[in-house]
Amino acid sequence: MKQYTLLIGGERVAVSSHAPVSNPSNGDIVGYMPLASEAELDRAVDAAAEAFAGWSRMPDEKRAQACRALAEKISEHAEELAQLLTREQGKPLSGLGSRFEIGGALAWTRHTAELSLPVEILQDDNEGRVDLYRKPIGVVGSITPWNWPVMIACWHIIPAIRAGNTIVIKPSPMTPLSTIRLVEIMNEILPAGVVNVVTGENSIGAALSAHPGIAKMIFTGSTETGKKVMASAVATLKRLTLELGGNDAGIVLPDVDPARIAEGLFWGAFINNGQTCAALKRLYVHDSIYDDVCNALVDYAGKIAIGDGLDETNILGPIQNEMQFNKVRELVEDARAKGGRILTGGEPMDRPGYFYPITLIADVDHGFRIVDEEQFGPALPIIRYTDIDEVIARANDNPAGLGGSVWSSDPEKAKHYALQLECGSVWINKHGAIQPNAPFGGVKQSGIGVEFGAEGLKEFTTIQTVLS
Ligand code: NAD
């Protein structure tokens, strides 16, 4: 089985220690991840710092062209990346799986390539002139999670380099191989040192986020780890973008047709098996249509083929890793023990791999772990409500604030309530539908800063004003 290498300063760097990466569908080893030492991390940061001098001074249009060329390169390797992603992450090739993820990576890369940050003239009159320039920050450190590893890597890398920074990325130890391959492909066209990858256990993430040579960290992962990254930033006042955990509420008003919204609700919650930051994680349904919505969701769930992602007939795969599998089991058990009614699923599937069925749980409420905590898996609590103002308050009664949604046949009414939700993105009659031109980020403990679009690009810059 292949031993992967680090990629530092445009060169593949072999190391002496490796760790196996296994396929969550069957336990087969997919490849061996290099375990970088701190010396190799230093080398990567040095290589990125060296490359920064040339890359940051390059004419902006040349960097835009390089990002366009990256999209073409990724596109040429799309199927290879999708196959590797399915084997290490578990998500199917089909449906909203690996090919969809690579398609997303491409869409964001292409969109970001076309963004620019022109000089803004803040004042130009008899009193004087003020110009606002956006300048690159330096070497960016990137840490990514295991749920959408290739797409999130592009969310970090492309705006960072588009704005003139260089980067050292550290993927999750659960899914490092597709990121290594992505960076290898990028290095076929980028100058040496602009994009570097180091891999290893969580400790190498801690070392990266504390590294004095890193000027800015972009981190996507759990709120708990995000707080550690923030603490590490103190010594050198690193700039931070933190995209953290969510516990998104979806609120269904009494005026909907349950059969019509079932598909949207289902994929809002179960995209990538629920292992999505802005998935619908708490569903609040009005008492008058509660049973109809529950039944429509159970019917829809019955149509979904779950299995090994390399089999193209499957549209959901396993949970990605044992820790997450156990967490979902525990939260479902807690709900059952407290009187939650399991409408479908509720027990691990009797087969090898971390397979857990789509699980819908009725008659749950705040105080159940699956409502209060982020489940990040294929289990959805469905909470009954009668009073809309009271349900908004309950939806907001959570430390997370990533996304939310309101479902109604009256879009204006839906918007009225949507604006009362404490979250960074709110959808009407859909959930989690992110797009490259809409800034995305969390409020409260779901993060700091935004990604995507010009607002996201600005996070990879510092402001310099010129006053004359
Ligand atoms: P995690 O926090 O366990 O790990 C994320 C990354 O941090 C991994 O690369 C890991 O190796 C690294 N890491 C671990 N300990 C570290 C430390 N002490 N210092 C620095 N880095 C460290 O998260 P996960 O389980 O991989 O991902 C799931 C979480 O990510 C969920 O909470 C999900 O909601 C969140 N997420 C958020 C977004 C968003 O955009 N807001 C997107 C995807 C996932």
UniProtKB/TrEMBL annotation:
Pfam families per the UniProt record, alphabetical: Aldedh
In terms of SUPFAM superfamilies, this protein maps to: ALDH-like (SSF53720)
Query: A GO molecular function for this record?
Result: oxidoreductase activity, acting on the aldehyde or oxo group of donors, NAD or NADP as acceptor
Q: Which residues form a coiled coil?
A: none
Entry keyword set: Oxidoreductase
Q: Which residues form the active site?
A: E243
Against PROSITE patterns, the record matches this protein to: ALDEHYDE_DEHYDR_CYS (PS00070), ALDEHYDE_DEHYDR_GLU (PS00687)
Q: Which CDD domains match?
A: ALDH_AldA-AAD23400
Q: Which residues form the Aldehyde dehydrogenase domain?
A: 18-466
Give the top-rank taxon of the lineage listed in the UniProt record for this protein.
Bacteria
Q: What PANTHER family would the database entry show?
A: ALDEHYDE DEHYDROGENASE-RELATED (PTHR11699)
Family membership = Belongs to the aldehyde dehydrogenase family.
Q: What is this protein called?
A: Aldehyde dehydrogenase
Q: Which organism is it from?
A: Pseudaminobacter soli
